[in-house]
Design a protein that fits this description.
By secondary structure, this protein is of the alpha+beta class. The protein has one domain (about 5-75). Helices cover about 55% and strands about 15% of the residues. It has 4 helices and 2 strands, in the order αααββα. It has helices at about 5, 10-35, 35-45, 70-75; strands spanning about 50-55, 60-65. Strands 1-2 form a two-stranded antiparallel sheet. Helix 3 (about 35-45) runs parallel beside helix 4 (about 70-75). The longest helix is centred in the first third of the chain and has 22 residues, at about 10-35. It is flat, with a radius of gyration of 15 Å. The N and C termini lie far apart (about 35 Å). The model has no long low-confidence stretch (mean pLDDT about 85).
């Protein structure tokens, strides 16, 4: 698993939360790589965000996501 090192030493609860965050990050990166989304980012200023609903807190929490795909990064930060 490519993220195993980042999960080592975490409690089961923290590990589960980290895995959820990694899943959301992967999904957002897939969306940001989609040509239609890239076009919408460039032309209409679309923003794609990752959020997790925390049942215990009853809140949506943002997931800090690093843009990994160069094309998506260029689209996201080019006006």
């Amino acid at each position: 698993m490519q993220n195993a090192q980042g999960l080592e030493g975490l409690s089961p609860t923290d590990r589960a939360r980290k895995m959820v965050d990694l899943n959301v990050e992967a999904g957002v990166n897939v969306l940001r790589s989609n040509p239609n989304v890239i076009e919408a980012i460039k032309e209409r200023g679309l923003s794609v965000h990752g959020m997790v609903y925390d049942l215990a807190k009853g809140q949506l929490l943002p997931v800090d996501i690093q843009v990994k795909n160069e094309e998506a990064r260029d689209a996201a930060f080019t006006i």
